[in-house]
Amino acid sequence: xxxVLSQNEIDALLAALDSGEMDAExxxxxxxxxxxxxYDFKRAVRFSKDHIRSLTRIHENFARYLxxxxxxxxxxxxxxxxxxxxxxxxxxxxxxxPKMTILNVFEAEPLEGRMVLEVHPNxxxxxxxxxxxxxxxxxxxxSNLTEIETIVMERIFSRxxxxxxxxxxxxxxxxPRLEALETNPQFMQIVSPNETIALISFSTKIxxxxxxxxxxxPHVVIEPIMSRLSVHHWFxxxxxxxxxxxxxxxxxxxxxxKLPIVAELGESSITIKEFLGLxxxxxxxxxxxxxxxxxxxxxxxxxxxxxxxxVKDRLAVQVDEVISEGVEENNDE
Length: 333
Description:
By secondary structure, the protein is α+β, with helices and mostly antiparallel strands. The protein is built from 10 helices and 10 strands. β9 and β10 (314-322) form a beta hairpin.
């Protein structure tokens, strides 16, 4: 923090210079002592502030997707938010989580290596309770998972990786896949203890139950794509080409879109008095001869010229001419 002198301190400094009590040359001398900063090799800094900001943006989207997914599945109030994104040794992460917790070990091709989604038991059991018809309350005592609870949790958390895939789509197309569901962190060693990880912590509230969800991403796993986590990549990367399947789906949806089509027989102008005096059988002459084609508009745009007719006792219009793009309609007064 920069020290700011008050006006009195500035006046005293100028007075000391004028009286000779202080030499101006002494103020110009630079400090010769070297400044030494402490560096802990056990807490190696592998992620820059730029990387942390990018990870925060990605997983804020992930939190929104999870909120939507769990709200629909559990049919209750769910709120998930990113609390912090930090880097620390893997061993410190293992020691910070409960001895009995829910650990979803997964891989995300094409990235090499394993990651962990740790869910606090209160949150996990509240989810299971809701899925099995309960109120979503957490048990007072956490015990080993039964086979049914394990299957239910695997089904719940397998679907969460679809949200993770969607959140990372702006950086890389990944295919997360649940490898194992563990409960004891001491038996889970996905990287060496001193390996730096990015830890994304989410505050989670399900009904009246609160807890944390932690996403552990080892540096060695996302090291090949670290350059994509820079702000420069976010703003200058070219727009990704759409996949053929996505293009085909888009074309199908556009082809089914409904548009209003109007065939104008002609126009006419009458006074208000004439309009009020109209009776059944009166004829209004239009400003168009029988030889002229009908204007066929799609929406508000003139697209075709046609002629009136009938098909199976129903009125119809036959398209005789296609108006080229860029041709404007001439409104003759």
